[in-house]
Design a protein that fits this description.
By secondary structure, this protein is mainly β. Helices cover 9% and strands 30% of the residues. The strands form 12 sheets. A 6-stranded antiparallel β-sheet has the order 7-6-3-2-37-38, with no helix packed on it. Strands 33, 36, 39, 42, 43 and 44 form a 6-stranded mixed β-sheet that branches. It has a 5-stranded mixed β-sheet with strand order 35-41-40-46-47, with helices on one face. The radius of gyration is 26 Å and the shape is globular. It holds the Pfam family Glyoxal_oxid_N. It comes from Psilocybe cubensis (Psychedelic mushroom). Keywords: Signal.
């Protein structure tokens, strides 16, 4: 008897634990904008060298220490919070220098920012002391700092500093791992345009800390252009790491580095700074990771440090290549960019397309005072026209700028961008200067102008699905999403195009969105002849390496039109080994007709008289209610079975 009670208790706990809260149906975007165009917003109060979306209404900006006009606690601000609903901003205090730090989000929802520069004074010169007591900026050495932020809906969150310090790092890369911890990889100890043997930090470590830093032969052998090594966690649990012309698979558990093919056509890492992105992970590609690299600079290794090398005269590349490292170690060519670009940002959109924006046609990242720099900029010829990449288009026609208009703001070195929940893109930053520089002094100043870009779908009526949930597990029971006639654009056959996508927007800096990825969840549907439907949606695939735990954004997309995104937590919400649940089966995709027959999604919609139409609506409503009832019953079926055993005993 006690055993049966124990089984029932465990089962009920499991059912309750696996019943996430249903989110209110998302509405329509509240912000108005013209599709295909940029809109200038209020100026930011710090220049957005780094930024990330932390809440539905909050973007967090991080700058380097410089003479920003906005002050906090007696010194210039170099971090801020930007409220999207009304453009209200508040300065945030980060006592240490965040110049060229890296960032990501932990599995518990805390954002992490690691590394930076030494304390500086005017002009970016080293401060007299490194303890934060030297004027005029009162900043402390940030090279070993680990900064943490838990985003808030109110005004009560602020950056804190971890009690643990990292290795000394400038330009490190962070990537969230399958347990929600992060790997911190590479960088240099002192910074500069290039890395070199005297200052490189060819190691990686983890946070939360799990022992001393581990030396990497790959990082030792990819000088001098290996800062911000390009890194992605793969479904295999290994990491793709790319720098200079070399590529490896890193097993972060066994510390084994496996060489893959060399990068063709161009250098993609900083300061060549190609645009990079992991392509959408979908059921159709079995959630296989494919990484795309576009642009950069084709500079031979021995020329980077040559006194004769003039970066600003270097034409940026147009080459785009892809690699699926869990399948093959070989790069394949894709459609080239329509224009040469270095420092391009590639942003995943919920319709599956990729937005390419920002960058320069000539030169590289970096700045300095030389005879050939433009002011201090090492780049020129800003690319103002965005372009969209369609992965489903035929080869030769994947890039298009049709219907898109250029920005008026040059954004090259130190610019950033991120997707927003309403499907627009927040764009800010650009600052190829050692300290604050105004437009009256230089051609490419410290940039505070901030924009939103509105993709082609923005002004379409958005789906308003009912039944989206606030937490996703790895495996486990499916959930049902209800779509009405408006969501289906008055045609039940459109349910065949419906899908639920989850996007992590990433930590944006230096033309990289660290941790950015998108997954399409497995789903089927039941469509009804009253032009309603239920989408049966699986949880995350039972492998946290496909999509690591932590906060993300869920969208329902119909006919390429996304709903407004809702924030969800993927995984347990803790930094820990994630629980893997059995995969629940989904019913076959089906559309039910008024005459009680069924058809596939290709079947034509039927017509009926007014009387038959009322019967049709009643019949469809009954079927819809049945599906919703079945969802509840499935959660408790095991508990009821255990109860029957108890009664028999």
């Amino acid at each position: 008897m006690r055993r049966h009670f124990y089984v029932i208790t465990l089962t009920l706990r499991f059912a309750l634990a696996q019943s996430p809260t249903t989110i209110a149906a998302p509405g329509q975007p509240t912000h108005k904008g013209e599709t295909g165009k940029f809109e200038l917003l209020d100026n930011s109060i710090v220049s957005a060298q780094q930024l990330f979306l932390g809440r539905v209404d909050k973007v967090y900006l991080i700058d380097k220490v410089e003479n920003n006009p906005n002050q906090i606690n007696g010194h210039p601000a170099w971090a801020s919070e930007y409220r999207l609903s009304d453009n209200r901003q508040r300065a945030l205090d980060i006592p240490t220098n965040t110049f060229c730090a890296g960032g990501s989000v932990l599995g518990n929802g805390t954002w992490i920012n690691v590394g930076g520069n030494q304390a500086v004074t005017s002009g970016g010169n080293p401060a007299a002391t490194q303890d934060g007591r030297s004027g005029p900026y009162m900043d402390a050495d940030g090279r070993r700092m680990i900064r943490l932020l838990n985003p808030c809906d109110g005004d009560d969150c602020s950056w804190t500093t971890s009690g643990y310090q990292s290795e000394q790092r400038w330009y490190p890369t962070l990537e969230t791992l399958e347990d929600g911890s992060v790997i911190i990889i590479g960088g240099s100890k002192n910074g500069g345009y290039l890395n070199d043997a005297g200052q490189t930090n060819p190691t990686y470590e983890f946070f939360p800390p799990s022992g001393p830093a581990i030396r990497s032969n790959f990082l030792e052998n990819t000088l001098p252009a290996n800062l911000y090594p390009l890194t992605w966690l793969l479904p295999s649990g290994k990491l793709l790491v790319q720098a200079m012309r070399s590529t490896i698979l890193l097993d972060h558990k066994t510390k084994v580095e496996t060489p893959l093919d060399d990068m063709p056509d161009a250098v993609r890492t900083y300061p060549a700074s190609a645009g990079t992105v992991m392509m959408p992970l979908t059921p159709a590609n079995n959630w296989t990771a494919t990484i795309m690299f576009c642009g950069g600079s084709d500079v031979p290794t021995d020329q980077w440090a040559s006194p004769k090398f003039v970066p600003i005269s270097q034409a940026a590349a147009t080459s785009c290549v892809k690699i699926a490292p869990d399948v093959s170690g070989t790069y394949v060519n894709d459609d080239p960019l329509p224009e040469r670009r270095s420092m391009a940002s590639l942003i995943l959109l919920p319709d599956g397309k990729i937005l390419c924006l920002n960058g320069a046609k000539t030169g590289t990242a970096g700045y300095g005072t030389t005879s050939w720099s433009i002011g201090q900029s090492y780049a020129d010829d800003p690319v103002l026209l965005p372009v969209l990449y369609n992965p489903d288009a035929a080869a030769g026609s994947r890039w298009s700028s049709n219907g898109l208009s250029p920005s008026t703001v040059p954004r090259m070195y130190h610019s950033s961008a991120t997707l927003l929940p309403d499907g627009s893109v927040f764009v800010s930053g650009s600052n190829p200067n050692a300290d604050y520089a105004s437009a009256s002094d230089v051609l490419f100043p410290t940039e505070y102008r901030t924009e939103r870009f509105y993709p082609p779908y923005y002004n379409e009526r958005r789906p308003q699905p009912k039944g989206l949930i606030n937490k996703l597990s790895y495996g486990g029971p499916p959930f049902e999403v209800v779509l009405d006639a408006d969501d289906l654009f008055k045609d039940v056959q459109n349910v065949d195009s419906a899908r639920v996508v989850v996007i992590r927007t990433g930590f944006s800096t230096h033309a990289i969105n660290m941790g950015q990825r998108m997954i399409v969840l497995q789903s089927t549907y039941s469509g009804f002849s009253n032009t309603t439907a239920v989408l049966h949606v699986s949880q995350m695939p039972p492998n946290p390496a496909i999509f690591p735990p932590g906060p993300a954004w869920m969208f329902l997309v119909v006919k390429g039109i996304p709903s407004v995104g809702v924030q969800v937590m993927v995984g347990s919400g803790n930094i820990e080994t994630q629980n893997i649940l059995p995969i629940a089966s989904l019913p076959d995709a089906m559309i039910y007709r008024a005459d009680d027959t069924t058809s596939s999604s290709s079947g034509a919609s039927s017509t009926s008289s007014a009387t038959d139409g009322q019967s049709q609506k009643t019949s469809s409503a009954v079927r819809l209610d049945c599906w919703l009832a079945l969802r509840c019953l499935s959660l408790w079926s095991v508990a009821l079975l255990s109860l029957s055993l108890l009664l028999r005993g």
